[in-house]
């Protein structure tokens, strides 16, 4: 229904905005240690590889609705593609809004090919349980980069940290630090729960015969 659509949209947007903010903080810390673009290339490829693992597992057990380009694929490429703009507040904001606008324009379009589905050009009849193409979602990450530059002026916090001051903040900080692991675990848990409840049935992959 509409509620779940907007709930999912809001949750995804906030998550990706925070990913952009974290890129600013991460780069500021890395530069103090003399880290280079190679670090971000490796990190992006690692996250993208985890996304490909999700692709394989969901293809194996879900079938036609498998994850072809989900949030991990997006974040992996975003870490790499956002690097040149992480220190440029205005450029990241402009680029972010342009990419979001392009994604909105493409939203209602369908195409007769599937090789650009990762970009946001969906073929006719395409559906996936987790779909986050570069257009518009890379734009959301870049808006997060802009916010990161505003909130982390001169790459230091412009607000007081409460992470160590109370239990609730420490609890939320734990989930923030381990968000990637939590994401990797939540999909198989949900799939198994739905299967146990009889809401979905696993197709038997033909490669097993």
Give me the secondary-structure topology.
Elements: H1 2-32, H2 37-61, H3 71-81, H4 89-107, H5 134-151, H6 167-177, H7 179-196
Helix pairs in contact: 1-5, 2-3, 4-5
Can you walk me through this structure?
The chain is built from 7 helices and no strands. The protein is mostly helical. The protein has a domain of 146 residues.
Straight-line N-to-C gap: 39 Å
The chain-level mean pLDDT equals 81
Instruction: List the total number of helices.
Output: 7
Share of residues in strands: under 5%
Question: Key terms for this structure?
Answer:
209 residues, mainly alpha, 64% helix, disordered C terminus
Task: Write a compact overview of the structure shown.
The protein is mostly helical. The protein contains seven helices and no strands.
């Amino acid at each position: 229904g509409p509620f779940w659509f907007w709930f999912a949209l809001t949750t995804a947007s906030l998550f990706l905005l925070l990913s952009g903010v974290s890129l600013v903080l991460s780069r500021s810390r890395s530069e103090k240690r003399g880290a280079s673009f190679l670090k971000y290339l490796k990190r992006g490829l690692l996250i993208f590889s985890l996304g490909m693992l999700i692709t394989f597992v969901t293809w194996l057990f879900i079938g036609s609705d498998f994850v072809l380009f989900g949030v991990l694929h997006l974040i992996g490429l975003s870490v790499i593609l956002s690097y040149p703009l992480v220190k440029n507040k205005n450029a990241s904001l402009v680029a972010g809004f342009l990419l979001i606008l392009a994604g909105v324009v493409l939203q209602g379009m369908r195409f007769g090919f599937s090789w650009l589905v990762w970009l946001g050009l969906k073929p006719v009849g395409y559906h996936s349980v987790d779909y986050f193409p570069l257009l518009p979602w890379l734009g959301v990450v870049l808006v997060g980069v802009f916010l990161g530059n505003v909130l982390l002026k001169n790459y230091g916090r412009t607000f007081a940290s409460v992470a160590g001051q109370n239990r609730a903040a420490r609890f939320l900080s734990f989930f923030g630090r381990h968000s990637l692991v939590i994401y990797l675990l939540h999909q198989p848990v949900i799939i198994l729960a739905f299967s146990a409840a009889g809401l979905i049935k696993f197709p038997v992959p033909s490669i097993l015969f």
